[in-house]
Predict the structure of FeoA-like protein.
Amino acid sequence: MKLSEAKSGGFYRITSVKEPELARKLGAYGIFAGSLVSKVGRGEIELATLKLAIGETTIALSGSMARHLFYSSPSGEKRSIYEQELNTEFTVVVPRNYSKDMTKLGIKNGDSVQVIKKLPHMEYITLVGHKTRCRLSEAHAACILGENRQFSFASKNRDFTVKELISQDTYSEVMAVNGISKGTVLNLEGIETGKSVHLDDYPDMVICTAEGLRVFISAATAEKISAE
């Protein structure tokens, strides 16, 4: 199938690239026939992971979850928490169908919340099960829960046992490909600034490589890439 037809959030192996010049450009970024990549919609990437304060507790909330939270403006209009000013207290509105995962993070409908920071793209270099290494984004780390903290706040070079995975509808394939499930022992080796490049001026989607590189491409470019 063409990469343009592939479902967002899934992992795919590149089988061929239609144009030699495009193949050369992708190859410069380590993407060849046989490469395993994930495809993400541009809108999902642009929703930053948020650092929130709920009382004395600080959490990280991935964009895939934060986009479902709202607050009421003074006029009574429902607005996304992405429109809220930083460090300003507001009452959060949690839709019922997302309340279960939000509760696991300590967020309940009607809580008083502050957006502290919009986190930049970061890569968590992680040892999985004391055997293999992978790179997790700040959004992935926010969806991995341990005994008393998220992997976002894991101590470096200390074992972190996974107790729960949330936002499974969005990140289940990422976790499965990297061998992460309940009971898996992770070890954070370091955090690096995430890297990204724009292959096209007006991108519609993003290819994410195993090395953590985000390549922004247009739908027209995705039409020229075949994957399975």
The two ends are 6 Å apart (CA to CA). The longest helix spans residues 168-177. Residues 122-193 form one domain. The chain has a mean pLDDT of 92.
